Amino acid sequence: MSNEMIRQGHPREMTGPLKWLRDNLFNNWYNGILTVISLFFIFVVSKAGFTWIFFEASWEVIPANLNLFMTGMYPPEEKWRIWTVVYMLAFLAGISAGIWGGIILRFALISTAVSLLLAVLPFESITRLLLLGAAIFLTASLLLGRGRTGWRSVVLWGWVLSFPLTVIMLRGFGESGVLPAVMTTRWGGLLLTLILASVSIAASFPLGILLALGRRSRLPAVSWFSISYIEVVRGIPLVTILFMSQIMLPIFLPDFRIDKIIRAMIGLTLFSTAYMAENVRGGLQGVPRGQYEAAEALGLSYSLTMVLVILPQALRSVIPAIVGHFISLFKDTSLVAIIGLLDLLGIARSIIANPDWLGLQTEVYLFAAFIYFMVSYSMSRVSRRIELALGIERK
Amino acid sequence: MSNNISDEFIVICDDVHKWFGKLHVLRGVTTRFKKGEKVVICGPSGSGKSTFIRTINRLEEYQQGKIIVNGTELNRDVKNIEKIREEVGMVFQHFNLFPHLNVLQNITLGPIWRKKTDKEEARSAALELLERVGISDQSDKFPGQLSGGQQQRVAIARALAMQPKIMLFDEPTSALDPEMINEVLDVMRELARSGMTMLIITHEMGFAREVADRIIFFDEGQIIEDAEPEAFFNNPQNERTRLFLSRILHH
Q: In what order do the strands lie in the sheet with B88-91?
């Protein structure tokens, strides 16, 4: 309506793409010059990039090493265990999406789309079939879970149990048998990156909440411990913590042998917990005093007040910060390459070191960066969805 | 304290003192409230009236004196305090509803988690209470979607859901737009008729005259006037009460 009125007042007003161009790119002389210069640079850079990606790069290094990128040195004959885990998670995700809908449903649909997309990539045909199968399996469990609100607690327990199950499946035990042990030194690639990230995320989330509550505690010993932990850890670079866990620990405690990967997980978790705690503290400070009073006036205990009233509000307000932290933690797992673990970046480095693939750093690193980007970007999309959903609910 | 005094008086305050740092906010408050009594507490801002009713459910601690609620003396024992808070409902000036829960969840939270009431039972009790405060059609909405008057009525229902023996009202209408004050006062009138013991801080003097059995006037942390409404309005004993009344009634 207002557009019509403007048109009546200015009959020669431009519309469409030309108007957009003038309003946004050429609305005065210096913006016009900036536009031209920027277009020139964009052209030069993208032309070079395009030519390199499509004509100069030797991408054969990627399909040839895809197995390494994905799972590291995990024995090929034991790959079915990884697939079992993938299918288990697909099942849980599908069921949850069916039950809860909303964001989880969207997440499940994205996962389905991603696995379909991956099935198009030049993997071995068996891998592609399995990926296709996973997508179908996920959709089937989604349909199965629809409206089954009675299954909620069972499914939640399923998620909790999925962690130890994953470890047991991947690690195995004994020399032979159904699940012969696969030493963690053979775990690698994206598999290792995802395991490191999800374990340290899942562990540092509750620990960070406890630490944040501890920091606000009235008991001096508790708050003193929390504050000094947070400040000390935030004052140390992650690389230092990882080096400490890998090199210093065995020197100080020579009889105390813990798996290298577990030590890395502990290091990442300890590091992440401090940052998590500060994020949560920010959320706690945003909850008005009246909320505590209202909960206390109902006779709720401290823990019920926190769990039912304060934390839901505090966490909701810091979801963007928390997800941001998790994204950077996910990328920070690449630092374990420095202490000799073969995560995605570690594998990339070892492939480059292979004489067969000499001089292909750019391709290999670009591919690794692409995978990091894909995972981080989906995390941030999910976070955005959560924010939107909560915003609507809250109005 | 003998049993028959506790039987007659549901709240007994004996020489209660409180300091905020060096500030002496309650300077020896002594009073008793009978079962079923409706008492309006008024006084200038900063007189300690709000602090006083908050000591009754221990949202504020006091440093000296004694308060006995329904036969239980307030002390540092956490279990004791939680039990007393269950028996003392409170309605706040700014409602303090839980914004992440809908109306029904706000009301059933206490009964389900504190009193371990069966979920279905709590739900039907909550719907009954919503009926009673006149907003049964809003049970699925979130507090942010309701008007101030509706929010305060939900807050009253939330407090009533714990089946308290006493209700404390801390300026329940002073954050409301004028046209919403009456819908809240109506709910409180109905509650008063039902025989609930009520301690109400308010500046609504018409309401006080109509509902109160007694009016207490606070100034500088002390009770300086304690009388039935007729006497309070027509023949106040204290100069400061007269000054306060002349200001509040002629504004």
A: B88-91, B166-170, B197-201, B38-42, B214-219, B222-227
